[in-house]
Design the sequence.
């Protein structure tokens, strides 16, 4: 019966501790956003107080000795919170043991310290995936080990008390300690984990957007100045396409870790859906904007853009950054956040690894872009799109090689809209798919109408990455060629380097299908992106188009050497070469000197409407 009495007393002891843990569950959520050391200290204090409470309602075995669940509490504190929590909890329990005294004091202190060591070992051994089955297995094993721990150190108690204690409470320990360990673990760690997951992104360890928003809104309410920065991880979608979701998750974890380590005091960050992160940087004093250097955000970009190692492979990303400031104005969260998005959108449109600070003119830019998107959706149906054709000439003979089809848009309200303004919008909205099909069909129909079937003139048509990556695109090209009667060898499809690098493996398969149709393939804007000898040899291009930026400054000795080297490089790989943007006779002289094959530009002709092409064709 005595053993049963001890079990009942331990149950009472356990109930008291659980009640305290339930109270702790109400307190813990407020510490979730604290830094690492404060959180671990709070865990240590909560478990330390729970251990002392357990010691205040023990099961007495004899004079100077008693049994309680304090060492289970000790082990769980170390397992959940690590060494720092273990030290804090041990301080509470050991101090109370020394204060209480008795013949079992020394053995109790040693048992507590041993329980702390057991917990710390499990803390470092714990599996990262935290499988559900281990929610029971780990605390069960800890409970058994702590029971052995208590019995082992009980051997230090004088013989009479030792024999009586081992006889009456050893079985109780091996029943109640594992049970208490499982229950305590559930009421603290499992419940804390559940509450933490409500506000913390488990994958990145950063606050969920809801918690982040409430933190920023508090700063707005208190008129605390801050920077709100929106980061976009460029190329993440490509990484997902070429790898797996697990690789994406590993990458996001590493990015989040770098970001967390970089965050200054009084600052926070969160991950939004997809590939974006929000950062709020404030001054700890909360009275003015933080003092930052001129390259502050560029240094963050450089940090996050450094290569990542995933599955023993290097993984590269670039970062676009949009920044807005809050200086205590009468603004709301819903007014501030769109400014960051506006700045980010402008950064992404500006190039790679760009940083843009919000200003009022950006809003006008976004408004104009929105208008373009709205009107572009009906441009095809309302016959606002048209094609012009720029001639290409062979440099050494002066013979007409063919034409490049160039898309134009005349809108009744917007006027003539630049392709550099509406083509990116068409690609982002996927309107480029129907528009691109229309361009290809119209250009081929022009060839059928005015170019003799025996002619060797070539028609060049630009295609976007969205079109190329559509698995039905090669079939569409074949269908249009058959309908218009244009020989495949007279159609040349132009692709930019960025189009290829967004999804190289898929692009390679599509290009080979187009090659099998007999279509010519040209690499456009060569030299402005990711060119490498490896993929130039690997992909089935017939022609390289050197970007006009290299031609415009060819009179400069340095640029002349660069352009000459590029031409010689392409010649060695046996590509035909077209120079874009030819405008002066000086440029023409140098291009001939470097044996460039073809050129197009305003020196020869501006892009022409269809009705002005016939004289050029008849001259041939």
Sequence:
């Amino acid at each position: 019966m005595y053993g049963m009495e001890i079990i009942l007393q331990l149950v009472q002891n356990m109930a008291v501790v659980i009640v305290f843990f339930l109270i702790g569950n109400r307190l813990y959520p407020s510490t979730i956003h604290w830094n690492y050391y404060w959180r671990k200290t709070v865990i240590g204090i909560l478990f330390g107080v729970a251990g002392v409470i357990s010691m205040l309602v023990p099961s007495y075995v004899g004079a100077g000795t008693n049994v309680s669940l304090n060492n289970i509490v000790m082990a769980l504190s170390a397992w959940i919170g690590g060494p720092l929590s273990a030290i804090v909890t041990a301080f509470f329990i050991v101090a109370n043991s020394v204060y209480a005294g008795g013949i079992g004091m020394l053995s109790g202190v040693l048992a507590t310290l041993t329980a702390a060591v057991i917990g710390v070992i499990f803390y470092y051994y714990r599996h990262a995936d935290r499988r559900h089955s281990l929610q029971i297995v780990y605390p069960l094993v800890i409970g058994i080990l702590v029971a052995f721990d208590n019995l082992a150190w009980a051997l230090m108690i004088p013989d009479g008390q030792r024999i009586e204690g081992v006889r009456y409470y050893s079985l109780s320990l091996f029943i109640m300690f594992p049970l208490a360990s499982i229950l305590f673990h559930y009421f603290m760690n499992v419940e804390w984990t559940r509450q933490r997951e409500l506000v913390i992104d488990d994958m990145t360890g950063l606050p969920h957007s809801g918690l982040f928003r409430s933190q920023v809104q508090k700063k707005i309410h208190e008129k605390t100045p801050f920077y709100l920065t929106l980061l976009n991880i460029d190329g993440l979608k490509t990484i997902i396409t070429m790898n797996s979701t697990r690789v994406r998750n590993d990458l996001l974890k590493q990015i989040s870790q770098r970001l967390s380590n970089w965050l200054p005091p009084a600052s926070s960050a969160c991950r939004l859906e997809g590939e974006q992160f929000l950062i709020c940087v404030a001054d700890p004093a909360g009275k003015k904007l933080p003092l930052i250097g001129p390259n502050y955000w560029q240094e963050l970009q450089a940090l996050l853009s450094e290569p990542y190692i995933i599955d023993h492979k290097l993984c590269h990303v670039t970062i676009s950054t949009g920044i807005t400031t809050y200086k205590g104005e009468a603004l709301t969260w819903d007014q501030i956040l769109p400014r960051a998005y506006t700045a980010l959108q402008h950064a992404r449109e500006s190039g790679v690894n760009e940083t843009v600070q919000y200003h009022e003119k950006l809003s006008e830019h976004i408004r104009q872009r929105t208008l373009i998107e709205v009107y572009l959706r009906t441009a095809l149906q309302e016959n606002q799109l048209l094609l012009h054709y720029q001639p290409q000439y062979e440099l050494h003979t002066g013979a007409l090689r063919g034409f490049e089809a160039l898309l134009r848009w005349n809108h009744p309200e917007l006027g003539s809209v630049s392709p550099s303004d509406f083509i990116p919008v068409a690609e982002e909205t996927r309107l480029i798919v129907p528009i691109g099909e229309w361009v290809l069909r119209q250009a081929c129909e022009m060839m059928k109408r005015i170019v003799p079937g025996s002619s060797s003139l070539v028609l060049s048509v630009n295609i976007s990455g969205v079109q190329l990556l559509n698995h039905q695109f090669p079939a569409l090209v074949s269908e249009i060629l058959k309908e218009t009667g244009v020989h495949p060898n007279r159609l040349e499809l132009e692709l930019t380097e960025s189009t290829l690098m967004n999804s190289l493996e898929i692009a390679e398969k599509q290009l080979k299908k187009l090659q099998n149709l007999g279509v010519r393939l040209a690499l456009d804007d060569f030299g402005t992106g990711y060119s490498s000898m490896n993929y130039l040899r690997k992909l089935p291009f017939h022609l390289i188009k050197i970007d006009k930026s290299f031609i415009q400054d060819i009179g400069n000795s340095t640029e002349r050497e660069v352009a000459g080297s590029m031409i010689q490089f392409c010649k060695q790989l046996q590509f035909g070469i077209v120079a874009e943007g030819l405008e002066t006779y000086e440029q023409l002289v140098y291009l001939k000197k470097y044996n460039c094959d073809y050129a197009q530009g305003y020196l020869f002709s501006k892009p022409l409407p269809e009705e002005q092409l016939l004289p050029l064709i008849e001259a041939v």
